[in-house]
Amino acid sequence: MSIFEKLESEVRSYSRGWPTVFDRAQGSWLYSEDGKAYLDFFAGAGALNYGHNNPVLKKALIDYIERDGVTHALDMYTVAKRDFLEALDEVILRPRSMDYKVIFPGPGGANAVEAALKLARKVTGKESVINFTNAFHGMTLGALSVTGNSMKRGGAGIPLVHATPMPYDKYFDGAYPDFLYFERLLEDSGSGLNEPAAVIVETVQGEGGINAARLEWLQGLSELCERHDILLILDDVQMGCGRTGPFFSFEEAGIKPDMVCLSKSIGGYGLPLAITLIRPDLDVWSPGEHNGTFRGINPAFVTAAQALRTYWSDDELEKGTRAKGERVAAVFEELVARYPDTGLIAKGRGLARGLEFPSGEVAGKVCAAAFDRGLLMETSGPDGEVVKLLPALTTTDAEIKQGLDIITESVDAVLSH
C-alpha cells in the first residue's frame, strides 16, 4: 500500500478504516487482492443500492459499450438519455402523480444541491436558505453553507454565508413544539431573519448520524413552507432510490417538494449521475446558465434506466427493504437492551440504520472489530459516534443475518471489556 501513502493526499478517509487493497466485487461482497471476502454493509455510501456489478445492469452496460454507444455528449440528445427519461417518467413520476422537469447538473450529489440552491435564489430573488442542525449536503461551497458539521465547514477556508440553521426534528428532545423558533422568527419583523428563498432538508440525516425525521414533522415543515411561500428542497441523494423503502424517502409523509435532489444510486451501477427534479413553473433558466462538462454520462443513463425498469415496476424491492430493515432494527434493539447502562440508541428507517454509542472512540472500535471479522461499515454523526449501516437493498436474508451476527460479536467484544 506504499504507493497510496506516497502519492495520495492525506484527505483520504475510508481507506484508513479499511486498510486493505480491494480487487473485485460482486453483489454484497468486496474481495481484497489476497482473496479475503468482506461483506459490504456500506455500499458506496448508498451509491450501490443494487449491489456491486449487478448482473442485469452489467449486461445492459456491456451491450451498450460493445455497440459503440455514445459515452460523452455534454447535454446533447442521445438514445440513452431518452431511454432514461422515458423510464423515469413511466416507472417513477407518472405512477406517483409527480410533475417535475429534470436538470442534469453534473456527476455528483453536491452538483444536484448546488443547482437547486442556485435556482431557488434565481426564482425568488432572495439570498437566504434555511438548513438544519446536523445536515450534510455536500462539499462544494454552496452545499457546505447548508451543512452542519463544523469540521467539514471549516475546510471551506472562507465564511459560509446566506444560510441559517434551524433545529432538526427531536433536536430539543420534544421540549418545544415543532417549528416554534422557526415560525416565530419568520413572523417577527424584528427577528433579523432574512426572508428565505428555500428550506433544504433530508428526511433521514445520513452523515449527521442516521437521524430520521418523524413523518408528521416533515408534513409540518411542508405546510410551513407553503404558508410562508418558501421553496422546499428535498435532498434525497443518499436516502432516495429506495433506501428507506419507497423510491423517494418522503413518499410516506405525503409531501410534494418543490425540488428533489438525487444522485448516488440513481445511476444504478455506481456510475456518476445526478439529477435535480423541479416544478415545471420553476424552470426559468436561460440556455447554458447552469452547465458543465459531465452533465450526463451516457453509460450511467443506460444502467439507470435498466435499474428503474428492473426494480421499480412492482413493489417487491420496497417490501424486501422494509422487512430487512425491521430485522436490523430488532437486533439493534436487542443490543440496546443488553447494554442498558451504555447509552446505546437504535436509529433509522428502512435499510438506513444506525447504532449510537457514547463516543466516537467506541463506535470506531466496533467498526474496527467488524472489519477484522470481514464486515465493512462506517461511522457518522458529529463526533463519529454512530455506527452506520447502508447495505445494498439486494442483500440476501442470509447475508443480512451474517452481517448482524458479526455486528453483535463486535459490539460484545468492545462493550464487554
What's this, in brief?
By secondary structure, the chain is an alpha/beta fold.
Keywords:
PyrdxlP-dep_Trfase; Aspartate Aminotransferase, domain 2; single chain; 38% helix; alpha/beta; Aspartate Aminotransferase, domain 1; seven-stranded mixed beta sheet
Report what the structure shows.
The chain is of the alpha/beta class. The chain has 2 domains: 154 residues, Alpha-Beta Complex (Aspartate Aminotransferase, domain 1), CATH 3.90.1150; 253 residues, Type I PLP-dependent aspartate aminotransferase-like (Major domain) (Aspartate Aminotransferase, domain 2, 3-Layer(aba) Sandwich). Helix content is 38%, strand content 16%. Strands 4-12-11-10-7-5-6 form a 7-stranded mixed beta sheet, with helices on both faces. The protein has a 4-stranded mixed beta sheet with strand order 1-2-3-15. Strands 13-14-17-16 form a 4-stranded antiparallel beta sheet. The longest helix has 23 residues. The chain is globular. The two termini are 32 Å apart. 46% of the residues are buried. The mean pLDDT is 97. Its EC number is 2.6.1.76. Belongs to the class-III pyridoxal-phosphate-dependent aminotransferase family. Pathway: Amine and polyamine biosynthesis; ectoine biosynthesis; L-ectoine from L-aspartate 4-semialdehyde: step 1/3. Pfam families: Aminotran_3. GO terms for molecular function: diaminobutyrate-2-oxoglutarate transaminase activity; diaminobutyrate-pyruvate transaminase activity; pyridoxal phosphate binding.
Q: Could you name the CATH topology of the largest domain?
A: Aspartate Aminotransferase, domain 2
Q: Provide the spatial order of strands within the biggest beta sheet.
A: 4-12-11-10-7-5-6
CATH superfamily of the largest domain: Type I PLP-dependent aspartate aminotransferase-like (Major domain)
CATH architecture of the largest domain: 3-Layer(aba) Sandwich
Radius of gyration: 21 Å
Number of DSSP strands?
Answer: 17
Q: Helical segment tally? A: 14
- CATH class descriptor name of the largest domain: Alpha Beta
The first-to-last residue Cα distance is 32 Å
| Major pleated sheet | 7 strands, mixed
Secondary-structure class: alpha/beta
Q: Which oligomeric form is depicted?
A: single chain
Principal-axes geometry comes out as globular
- Share in helix: 25-40%
Low-confidence stretches: none
Write down the domain tally. 2
Keywords: Aminotransferase, Pyridoxal phosphate, Transferase
Pathway: Amine and polyamine biosynthesis; ectoine biosynthesis; L-ectoine from L-aspartate 4-semialdehyde: step 1/3
Enzyme class: transferase
GO molecular function: diaminobutyrate-2-oxoglutarate transaminase activity; diaminobutyrate-pyruvate transaminase activity; pyridoxal phosphate binding
